[in-house]
Amino acid sequence: MTSTMSRDILPTGGRIFTSVPDLLFIPEFVFGGLVWMLVASAELVQIPNPLGWVMFVSIFCFIMTTLWFFIFLCGANQSGIWPSLDVGYHFVAVVFYLSASVILAYITFLRGVLQSLTVDLKTYRLDIAAVVMSYLATLLYFIHAIFSAIRWKRS
């Protein structure tokens, strides 16, 4: 007779605060939210706005990570497809954030070099902070994707 173990595929409830990849939800919220706020606080809005992609990525990932967090917290992640969905979502988030980070760094560089006499120092510092937070969010999503892939391979 075959014995089946009833083990959880992914952590649920309070256990998400003790597992390595899922512990990164909180810093992803923080750094992703900071990117959103810092880019939104910039006073320079031009048409067409290249920072629209950065805003889309930061808002999309913030909302999806919030949804993902609550799915994990409520325990609705126990079917066999969730580990691969977890890896897929975090891989997409890494690609999105990396592209947004590069665009944001390039726009910040252009603002600093081309408009060095007219750029407001406060806005420029906010842009630099947004670039740093964007790359940190990219790193966190990348680490989460790696650990999720390792967990997916083990399941």
From TrEMBL:
GO BP terms in the entry: myelination
Keywords noted in UniProt: Lipoprotein, Membrane, Transmembrane, Transmembrane helix
MARVEL domain ranges (all copies): 16-153
Transmembrane spans: 20-39, 51-75, 87-108, 128-150
Domain of life: Eukaryota
Primary location class: membrane
Pfam families xref list: MARVEL
The protein's name: Myelin and lymphocyte protein
UniProt keyword annotation of Cell inner membrane present: no
InterPro entries listed in its UniProt record: MAL, Marvel, MARVEL-CKLF_proteins
Protein family (similarity comment): Belongs to the MAL family.
Any one GO molecular-function label of the UniProt entry: structural constituent of myelin sheath
Membrane protein topology class: Multi-pass membrane protein
Compartments where located: Membrane
GO-annotated cellular components: membrane
Organism: Perca flavescens (American yellow perch)
